[in-house]
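Researcher: Going back to the complex we discussed earlier. I've cleaned up the inputs and rechecked each line, so this should be the final set. Can you rerun the prediction on the complete assembly and write out the structure?
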Amino acid sequence: MPETTVDTVACIGAGVIGGGWVAHFLAQGFDVRAWDPAPDAAEKLERLVDAAWPALTELGLKPGASRDRLTVAATLAEAVDGAGFVQESAPEDLALKQKLLADIDAVTAPDVVIASSTSGYGMTEMQVAAKTPERLVVGHPFNPPYLIPLVEVAGGKLSALWAVEQAAAFYRRVGKSVITMDREVPGFIANRLQEALWREALHMVANGEATVEQIDLAITDGPGLRWPVQGPMLTFHLAGGEGGMAHMLDHFGPSLKSPWTRLEAPELTKELRDAVVAGCDDEADGRTIADLVAERDRAVIAIQRAVGQARRG
Amino acid sequence: MPETTVDTVACIGAGVIGGGWVAHFLAQGFDVRAWDPAPDAAEKLERLVDAAWPALTELGLKPGASRDRLTVAATLAEAVDGAGFVQESAPEDLALKQKLLADIDAVTAPDVVIASSTSGYGMTEMQVAAKTPERLVVGHPFNPPYLIPLVEVAGGKLSALWAVEQAAAFYRRVGKSVITMDREVPGFIANRLQEALWREALHMVANGEATVEQIDLAITDGPGLRWPVQGPMLTFHLAGGEGGMAHMLDHFGPSLKSPWTRLEAPELTKELRDAVVAGCDDEADGRTIADLVAERDRAVIAIQRAVGQARRG
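Model: Rerun complete. Updated structure for the full complex:
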């Protein structure tokens, strides 16, 4: 089903992530059918949408968007009936996902894409029990799905290219920033990066090297202020001063050997060095270091003000 | 020298970090004396202050603040003469830092604190050649030092408590957010977290798992949007839904065993689990999950708008 004709979305699983998707699709003006086997699912879902709605209203609801367009379905089959896109957000349990995706697949029209919110399983291992696995893809959002734009899209070995492309196009249509991965990597991209940081943080707490509060302050008042405007690569492109990433790697490269984290660094080969430098040049897309510094400075000031106001309420 | 009587700061080393410190102290209304052995240091420093000044003006200069209060000194001794605080920001080379800190120590009045901007060396290993090592401490900033509030302060084995406390008080006086560490950990806190993420990113590029641009987009449009308002710990406190960090660890704990990064996870013992849960409760400081969700949502919306405006210029 072409993504432009979708008017109804089915959300299977209505916890924090599934409920966040429900709120997002409602705000985007869709009919939404939710299904979750938990006995208190309907009330929890209502509280989740309650919590999200002020933010979505502030961002601007699409024409026709209404909370009244949510139906909590009594069965899985009822939820997917007539849906043009299915988003599965069940708990992170491989056997459960394999069975649930097969169940969804069995009752959903064959031209409808079914996307899984899985945080890290590959679709290859999840689609094994489905009869029509070609329309199954990963569509991994970030919490909360109604605010954070990123969605990582990846197919499994049995997924069809049309399903991957349609999922990416559909997410873009509903305002998402999409990364389509051409290979399956456990944890995809953002969760691998986030997980490395999280594990180092847990090691530090376990070893008495930092408290929970120090770890959060180190990020919110430190590198975290740069990351919404420039990712880790462009950040270090600027750390190199006028010489950019090339100077940074040639000058600070040896610190990769320092015991600054428990994660071993890769060998900084000429190929890796050149790939990172070229990637930064591509991404800078003609902006000089001075342009990027000015952009970062404007953004960091505005981010600090925004956070200060949000904390004051 | 009590930090409240400091009116002149010496900045030794005037690259990206040293020059950023110069701009910060000028904007805070100090006389600043800079020294750097590079032949083109004065011109580079002028360009650095040029680049920083619009941001500092926008933030608000302190009374009396003026770029005219910068002197580029001809010698190290001239730079520290009369200075009430010394900030060293030389290249990251242990032997160089040991010698330079001993040289600064030899010409600086004995009651003046000398702080090193080192990104990861402990003061214990850097202070070995100094005659009065007790006033030497680490004062590690983040790029750019004139905008990012975080400074990590840590003494070495021969540092005196008064020097650590005076450095922390001085940085707070000049608007910084200070973490005082009671033990030396290579890379301190923020750089260990940032370095784990950076190394995972380099591995992904080296293995063709993600491009430089995908890595940056995964952060700027994903978890990076949350980190200025809630660090990694509070972020996952909210990922647990109404059950908070306790539910998150009990539910997602097993994913610590997933191959989501090359960094091995610590054992999630009951002690570690309880320490992280208690730390989040302390940090939440009475704010419910619903309060934190509302605060995060307001902040993420404002951060996205701020970044969008900064990019448009």
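Model: Worth noting: Chain B has a mean pLDDT of 95.
Researcher: Good, that matches what I expected from the previous run.
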